[in-house]
Specification:
The protein has helices spanning 15-23, 38-46, 53-56, 92-115, 130-136, 158-174, 183-189, 205-208, 235-244, 259-266, 282-286, 308-315, 341-353, 357-368, 372-390, 392-397, and strands at 2-4, 29-32, 63-67, 73-77, 123-127, 144-149, 177-180, 196-198, 222-226, 249-253, 271-275, 291-294, 320-323, 336-338. It is of the alpha/beta class. The strands form two sheets. An eight-stranded mixed beta sheet has the order 3-4-2-1-5-6-7-8, with helices on both faces. α5 (130-136) runs parallel beside α6 (158-174) and α12 crosses α14.
């Protein structure tokens, strides 16, 4: 059972979704979507795609069978509407409303677990939803309670970070184990956790290999970025590149959270924003890139990032230039890491002009070693280790 802090569907690839897809081949999986609030429902009046009113109000089944692309099946549960509480200050009212939301969610999950006959040998895998983990953890008769942390909560969306750090510390203390996606997150969480394991992000290699452009044109300069325009981006580096390469085209694919910075970038004539795209649409954009960039700032928040986009870029055979942030040791031999904007610019120019089919294949090979199947095997091994420690007599007798 995965109680998620995000939704199954969406315009970007999510590690928890990809892991559950792999697990669904040999396990029964219940994926619990992050609950919409009444505020979301009101917004959904204007955008009817935002909330399925019939589901959340019980007029049709809130449980769906989702066939996965690898032959598995995931049971997707849409929870009842919750009350918005993230804006409230810490205290009595916040605690009461949060516990009411948790009770609604718990009731819906227990009913579904009975319906699916999932009341035995249950693993509670709570993904980046620490508040629900604190209140609903160990409430389903689960064998093990796992917290999946794929981002630094201090840098998360404002609605999550207000109470998130406090809730996360409480959840780390009661979870049987914590799964993190980077060494930076491991260093941040390990001191508070009973057990901590690193299971890094990966790539749908076969999908992103479709972004390979075998017709290398070293005279064409298209600098591409796939991801969110937010506070993690080093805008000093980005604007320096744009101004230094006026004849190059800069393409940004993804959603915008920092509208002020996005407006600044859009003011340049050689910049194009194409907005968020579905995962299956991304290879078409990668195919137009000459080089791919990851221009993040280097701070406490980015130190925990293992960007999914590195492997996605590499699977498309693209040269990758990145600033130095977090633990980059896995990629130091295959990508270029710049310590300043001048070095970043030099690497962009050099990598475009020196690209070759041999380099493309070397990048693809690295990406092919970082698949979701491999990561699911690593996660499975971690959970098995946890359960051997929790139930040594029972496990040894099997």
């Amino acid at each position: 059972m995965c109680i998620s802090g995000t939704e199954w569907h969406g315009n970007y690839i999510k590690s928890v979704v990809e892991l559950m897809k792999v697990f669904s081949v040999t396990n029964k999986i219940l994926f619990v979507d992050n609950a919409n609030t009444y505020k979301d429902a009101l917004l959904g009046v204007k955008n009817k795609a935002a909330v399925d009113f019939k589901q959340v109000f019980g007029l049709k089944s809130n449980l769906k069978e989702i066939p996965t692309d690898n032959g598995g099946i995931v049971y997707l549960l849409t929870p009842p509407l919750a009350f918005p509480v993230s804006f409230l200050p810490s205290g009595f009212v916040y605690n009461i409303m949060l516990r009411y939301n948790a009770w609604l969610l718990r009731k819906a999950i227990k009913r579904t677990l009975r319906q699916l006959n999932m009341n035995h040998e249950l693993i509670n895998f709570t993904s980046f939803n620490p508040a629900m983990g604190v209140i609903n953890g160990h409430k389903f008769g689960e064998r093990s309670l796992i917290y999946h942390c794929y981002d630094e909560i201090k840098g998360a969306a404002i609605w999550l970070r207000k109470h998130g750090e406090r809730m996360e510390k409480a959840f780390l203390a009661i979870a049987d184990a914590v799964i993190v996606t980077s060494k930076g997150l491991y260093d941040s969480k390990n001191h508070y956790a009973k057990r901590c394991f690193i299971v890094k992000n990966a790539v749908k290699a076969e999908l992103f290999k479709q972004g390979l452009n075998k017709d290398i044109n070293t005279d064409k300069q298209v600098v591409g970025f796939v991801g969110t325009i937010d506070d993690r981006m080093n805008y000093d580096v980005v604007t320096y590149l744009i101004e230094s390469l006026p004849n190059a085209e800069f393409v940004f694919v993804g959603r915008t959270l920092n509208k002020e910075r996005a407006k600044l970038l859009k003011s340049y004539p050689n910049v194009t924003f194409v907005g968020p795209k579905k995962p299956e649409e991304l290879p078409l954009h990668l195919k137009t890139f000459s080089v791919a960039i990851i221009p993040y700032v280097n701070d406490e928040l980015t130190s925990g990032i293992y960007p999914m986009k590195i492997n996605e870029y590499l699977a498309g055979g693209l040269p990758v230039i990145s600033t130095r942030f977090g633990d980059m040791t896995d990629f130091e031999a295959i990508i270029k890491i710049a310590d300043n904007k001048e070095a970043f610019l030099e690497n962009v120019i050099t990598e475009i002009s020196s690209n070759s089919p041999e380099k493309q294949q070397a990048r693809i090979k690295v990406a092919e070693g970082n698949t979701w199947v491999k990561r699911a095997e690593e996660l499975s091994s971690a959970i098995e280790q946890v359960e051997r420690e929790l139930y040594p007599d029972k496990i040894s007798a099997l």
